[in-house]
Design goal:
about 375 residues; mainly beta; Neuraminidase; 2 domains; five-stranded antiparallel beta sheet; four-stranded antiparallel beta sheet; about 5% helix; binds calcium ion
Length: about 375
């Protein structure tokens, strides 16, 4: 429903003239997607906290591009295309800037390594002399994870409200969580199928440290980095910058795409159910998922959904009060941009945003002013505006 409609109707009744009918065209104040450029297989947009002049676009093939003053810079910010294997679900999949980036110049990337396709989480720093270029020599490997298959690498990297780095990893791939004794999602002995939480700063001789509050830190046989588990292939997660709440979109197997949501800090130790459950329904019979937290929103492949693309919480005030705090998301096949109000239990107000369809919808992101972006793996990157 348009906000403008009642206003126009009121004007019409006051003047005695018929109100214009916005039946076919969106009113001027409706949200829309404005192109900010075309890239090579873009899948994420980000910027350092508070940066007001630049937007960083992640290309699957291994480059991070900067848009500055509305123009794409010729030289990439970072180019790891020589170190990675890309294509399908592999490539440069995640980027996160440290909360203290303005001082430390630290940022983190998540990619599939050239030599074996395994996951690497690597720290870089921006050049001290040129803030628009990363120092390639600053690379510091934090974490590596073997991947038994080429698919389900996860990819999201986010700093939480606690200043820790959260890493999303898929279940190892193939199909049906086929690896591990009873799959990887429910096994606390592997990092696959998990959200990890680490303090990414060097700690003595160790490349990172495990925060003291991690839920399985002292459990025998568990990977201490695990923060939440039971995930199949988390394709994007987001913290609400206003509340610290967390949303994790998890790509389904054959039938259901899902969005998981928890209030701030409540994802600690959470079991999101895979593979005993796909969405809210049983997948592997006879297997248990202790404390299973079902998704707050799910979509069916019967309706054309194939691979959910998790989004971000809208905190751009220029988009109007009605969208504040709403979660924007979509699907790679459907291409429709949607918004919903996430809350524990069930999401509400799930609807189409009414903007153009995005072909091969691959990702969402925000810049340093919380403006919202959408990426198409086919090339276009859009900003959500009015
Ligand atoms: Ca689940």
């Amino acid at each position: 429903m348009s906000l403008l409609g009642p206003v126009l109707a009121a004007v019409a009744s006051a003047t005695g003239t018929p109100a214009p009918q916005p039946a076919t065209a969106e009113p001027a104040a409706a949200p829309r997607l404005q192109s900010v450029g075309t890239f090579e297989q873009p899948l994420h947009v980000d910027a350092p906290p508070g940066d007001r002049s630049r937007v960083f676009v992640v290309e699957q093939g291994g480059k991070i591009r900067i848009i500055k003053g509305g123009r794409r810079l010729e030289q990439p910010f970072l180019d790891v295309s020589g170190q990675i294997t890309a294509g399908g679900e592999q490539g440069l999949l995640g980027l996160a800037f440290a909360p203290d980036y303005a001082q430390s110049r630290r940022f983190y990337v998540h990619y599939s390594a050239e030599e074996d396709g395994g996951t690497r989480i690597v720290e870089y720093r921006a050049s001290a002399s040129n803030p628009d270029v990363a120092d390639a020599g600053s690379a510091r490997l934090l974490l590596q994870q073997d991947q038994p298959e080429a698919n389900h690498n996860g990819g999201p990297l986010r700093f939480g409200p606690d200043g820790m780095l959260y890493i999303g990893l898929g279940d190892g791939g193939g199909g049906g969580d086929q690896h591990g004794r009873r799959g990887n999602g429910q096994s606390l002995s592997t990092k696959l199928g998990k959200i990890l939480r680490i303090d990414p700063r060097q700690s003595g001789s160790r490349p990172y440290s495990v925060p003291s509050g991690n839920p399985f830190r002292t459990r025998a046989g568990a990977a201490p980095e695990i923060y939440a588990y039971g995930l199949r292939n988390p394709w994007r997660m987001a913290f609400d910058p206003a509340t610290g709440d967390l949303a994790i979109a998890d790509v389904g197997q054959n039938e259901i795409e899902e969005i998981n949501f928890t209030r701030r800090n409540r994802a600690r130790g959470a079991n999101f159910g895979w593979r005993p459950f796909e969405g809210r329904q049983r997948f592997a019979s006879g297997e248990s998922a202790p404390g299973h937290v079902p998704p707050v929103l799910q979509k069916s492949h019967a309706d054309g959904w194939c691979s959910i693309t998790g989004g971000v919480f809208i905190r751009d005030r220029a988009l109007g009060s009605g969208l504040q705090g709403r979660y924007i998301y979509g699907d790679f096949c459907v291409g429709q941009v949607r918004v919903a109000k996430l809350r524990p239990g069930r999401a509400t107000n799930d609807r189409s945003l009414g903007v153009r369809r995005v072909e091969n919808l691959s990702g969402f992101g925000t810049d340093g002013q919380n403006r919202v972006y959408v990426t198409s793996l086919a090339g276009p990157v859009y900003r959500l505006t009015r």
